[in-house]
Write a structure and sequence with these properties.
Belongs to the NADH dehydrogenase family. GO terms for molecular function: NADH dehydrogenase activity. Keywords: FAD, Flavoprotein, NAD, Oxidoreductase. This is NAD(P)/FAD-dependent oxidoreductase. By secondary structure, the chain is of the alpha/beta class. It folds into 2 domains: 196 residues, FAD/NAD(P)-binding domain; 143 residues, FAD/NAD(P)-binding domain. It is built from 14 helices and 24 strands. The strands form 7 sheets. It has a 7-stranded mixed β-sheet with strand order 7-6-5-2-1-8-20. Strands 10-17-11-12-13 form a 5-stranded parallel β-sheet. Strand 12, helix 10 and strand 13 form a beta-alpha-beta unit. Helix 1 runs parallel beside helix 11 and helix 7 runs antiparallel to helix 8. The protein is globular.
């Protein structure tokens, strides 16, 4: 394959090294941030340029989504504006549809290309960092596409919060027991981090919210966690996983292990154990899969659809292509067994970005590259306010200490001092004042009120009889 046109030469440059970062999530943003720092002089002199292609103008710190859904953190503090953080990079809001690495071009669709009707554009590059992240892994469950709710974006998290409170409003006002029971039944599918933390935080929030309803009690709420395997939260170890099950069941949460969701058609969740639950809420958090753009590249992938990478975070057998995070299958050089890969989690991702950026710059400058090596430290998970589990460096924690460690760890990892300060301030205020229980469901349909006002007026009654009497209010006489 061709080499980059210009390995950061000195002097006047007409054709700089073009670095393309596909994805503006955790890996994409941090990689671009490290490159921005390492190539500071090159970017200033025009010897290098960095382009970040991302569907959203912000990076979402996903570990805080459950707290945002529970109202502990404002949604805008869970995201980081890319244009502010990556001020030396060119930000393109769009989606990479395909990558032809042999020709060093990426096919990009933007909002502008849709408006112009010209179709996607070809974006040339010299060095490629592919970090599109992952998407929800769904199964062909009848009714899931119609009634399922995801939990991977800040929009989904806030939408779910509004939805839960809205269901409580429905249950409080209906006279139909069937509608009430379905509104107060919440089914979560998936016993990993996303499912357990989302359920724990929202159950905590909803239980608190019942105090403001005259006819809903905490025991009226029915929460069900469905997990296809025999354990939940495998990252925190078997003992802590069993403790989590006991903790959730002690809160009257129905945990169903070795159970699958067979159907949710007609707003009825049918489980593989034969149980049927009329419900208006099915939250799907049963794993993720690589972003579709990986299948539209000429880069090598493994059987799971992730890019085959070396320990140096370069794509295997390919020059000038790099990857990390969910999209990359990176060998774990610290593991005792051969062939083991790094887990696709934030702990590895944030450390991989630094090594990736350093290796990319080293390759441009002709210096030797280094392997990515990080021994897994452990995991922490929140189960609601003041409740959590942790397994860190061989030590097992539960309850308040684990919850405190969860908050401290993620506060240290959320990008930018601005976000750290805002999140800490919100946590402090939340300890001094009552929890917010407001639902802003109208955010999902912001023009509904205006459309009603601007629409045609309602039809007038056709005759006096339809008004229930004569013009002077009396009954008609013969």
């Amino acid at each position: 394959m061709d080499k980059p046109r210009s390995p950061l030469p000195h002097g006047k440059v007409t054709e700089p090294v073009r670095i393309l970062v596909v994805g503006g999530g955790y890996v994409g943003m941090y990689t671009a941030l490290h490159l921005q720092r390492l190539l500071k002089d090159g970017l200033r002199s025009g010897r290098a340029e960095i382009t970040v292609v991302t569907p959203d103008p912000y990076m979402t710190y996903q570990p805080f989504l459950p707290e945002a859904a529970a109202g502990n953190i404002s949604p805008r503090h869970v995201v980081v504006p890319l244009r502010r953080v990556l001020d030396k990079c060119r930000i393109v809001i769009g989606e990479a549809k395909a990558v032809d690495h042999a020709k060093r071009t990426a096919t990009i669709a933007t909002l502008a290309t849709e408006e112009e009707g010209a179709g996607p554009v070809q974006l040339p590059y010299d060095e490629l960092v592919i970090a599109p992240g992952s998407i929800s892994r769904t199964l062909p469950v009848p009714g899931l596409a119609d009634y399922g709710i995801g939990f991977k974006t800040v929009e989904e998290a806030i939408g779910l919060r509004n939805h839960v409170i809205e269901q409580m409003d429905i249950a409080s006002s209906t006279r139909d027991p069937a509608i009430r029971d379905a509104a107060l039944t919440f089914v979560f599918v998936g016993g990993g981090y996303a499912g357990v933390e989302a359920l724990g935080e929202l159950e905590d929030m909803a239980r608190y919210t019942t105090r403001y309803y005259h006819n809903i009690k905490p025991q009226d709420l029915k929460w069900i966690l469905v997990e296809a395997t025999g354990r939940i939260l495998p990252e925190v170890g078997e003992d802590m996983g069993k403790y989590t099950v006991r903790e959730l069941r002690a809160r009257n949460i129905d945990v169903r292990l070795d159970t699958r969701l067979e159907s949710c058609e007609d707003r009825v969740a049918v489980l593989s154990d034969g149980s049927r639950f009329p419900t208006r809420t099915v939250v799907w958090t049963a794993g993720v899969k690589p972003a579709p753009v990986l299948a539209a590249t000429d880069l090598p992938r493994n059987e799971r659809g992730r890019l085959k990478c070396t320990a140096r975070l370069s794509v295997e057998g390919v020059d000038h292509a790099w990857a990390a995070g969910d999209a990359a299958a990176v060998p774990d050089v610290t593991a005792g067994e051969p062939g083991r890969e790094c887990a696709p989690n934030a702990q590895h991702a944030v450390r991989q970005t630094k090594v990736l950026a350093e290796n990319l710059v080293a390759s441009l400058q002709g210096r030797p590259l280094k392997d990515y090596a990080h021994k897994y430290a452990g995991s922490v998970a929140s189960l609601g306010l003041h409740k959590g589990v942790a397994h860190v460096y061989g030590r097992k924690l539960k309850g308040y200490p684990a919850w405190f460690m969860h908050r401290a760890y993620h506060l240290s990892r959320v990008p930018t001092f601005n976000r750290k300060a805002r999140v800490l301030a919100e946590w402090t205020l939340a300890g001094l004042f009552k929890r917010e229980i407001v639902s802003l469901g109208s955010l999902e349909h912001p023009r509904a009120e205006f459309e009603l006002a601007a629409g045609p007026p309602p039809p007038e009654p056709k005759d006096e009889a339809s008004r229930g009497g004569t013009a002077d209010g009396g009954a008609k006489s013969d």
